Amino acid sequence: SRPAVVNYNRSGQPTDRDVVVYYGSNDGIVHAVKGGQDNTDGNEKWGFVPTEFYNRFARMYSENPIVSSANPRTYFADGSLSIDAVYINDRIEGAGANAQLYVGMRRGGRFYYSLDVTDPDDPLYKWKIDNSTAGFAELGQSWSEMKVVKLNVKYPVSASAASRKVVIFGGGYDSPANDPATQGTATMGRAIYVVDALTGALIWYTAPAADATAPSAATFLATASMSFAAAADLAVIDSDGNGFADRIYAVDTGGNIWRVNIGDANPANWTVGKVASLSGAAAADKRRFLFAPDIVPFNASTDSILVGSGDREQPFDTTINNRFYMVKDSHAIDAQPSSAATESDLCDLTANNLQGADATLAEADRTCIANAAKKGWLIKLGTGEKVVTSSSTLGGTTTFATNTPVSQVSGQCVGSLGKALLYAVNYKDATSTIDFNSNGVLGQSERSTEKPGGGFPPSPVPVSIKIDDKYYEAVITGTQVINPPTSSIGHRYRVFWNMAVDN
Fold first, then answer.
1. 57: Cβ–Cβ under 8 A, 6 or more apart, which residues?
2. Which residues contact 95 (CB under 8 A, 6 or more apart)?
3. What is the pLDDT of residues 52-77, one digit of tens each?
4. For residue 81, what is the enclosing H or E element?
């Protein structure tokens, strides 16, 4: 579970470290832990156990049945948390201040919980959504993190438009269909939901068919071709910078990229379109997306969608031909793709000829990139290699990670965690941007570096760092810091709190 960290700052003194860490765990508890580095920090404030977990503890206690392929392990609060924190005078305290937590369970179940944690010592239950809740029959395992954003929206549609905080999330993971190496027919998770963040009320949803139990105030849009589970986190953006989200990008386990336009105040006018269909007919080309796409402006009229395929639930699989993609889409708020892009619409930049010695091959790639009919590019990954993180683009460099299974060496006492690579490429042409080999040359072999120890690196996180009087940008994944080749920048990030210490 990826934790949510909140600095309440109730004393107004940063050195007080009024920090609380919230995280879910496979011990069946959503934990609240006092953050900080002092001797009194690190203690648990409280734990929340969803009622759905009550009947699972007996197996954990008795270890019966033993975990095996026939009896898979029992999961609990396995998903990521998100939080909506409202500060008044830089504090979460007093009238108007608020902190609300949203907890997904991933393999722990088909439900979400929301808790009011404005007072971290006195949490309050707010609401729950599960697949038996009216309008949510399509909800699969709650893998997709609830994204908290603002909409200028009519709810119900007969009301006047008003600013409203909502949570937006995908329909979830379909374990019976998605767990097998050969994907089955999905029966759940084929949806995108927009829900009132405060009350949990369903505002809008799209799915192949309407839910007969949905509340009358909810708006439904049929998307018949949405036939795969939307398990990944969604990318929700504010294209025009007016403070209200106006676009959603979603990916699914069938290799599709979806665009949802939500800028209109009337949910009845929202639209859904398929930007790309990147899974092939052959068994080896049945690609899946399990991580959120990264959206970056390409130019004034076009955006880039960056996403990699790979089924991290099948870490030892070597049969699927995985890729990393950049797909172009219109920047216009209400635009819809005229057709879904396929691999034939993309430039194959696997060989990185632009930084190679063959001028003819380099010119062919430049010609392809300049072709207005082309909708982006792709990199073909190696045998068994799969993208196991989301991507992050900073300073023109897109960072992501892959894993390739490695056979265990005879006599080796521990299992191999596979070969992990960290990639850093230019988002416009897939060229290398970082001199990983420290040889002073950016060439064909410089796109990636191997992570010691292998395994699945965490998704990269962009940060801004101040050293002396200068600001620098970096991307962090696990313990590794990647510095895109950008010049130092001025202060352009909002500061919520700061602590200066002398170590």
1. 28
2. 88
3. 999 999 999 999 999 998 999 999 99
4. strand 81-86
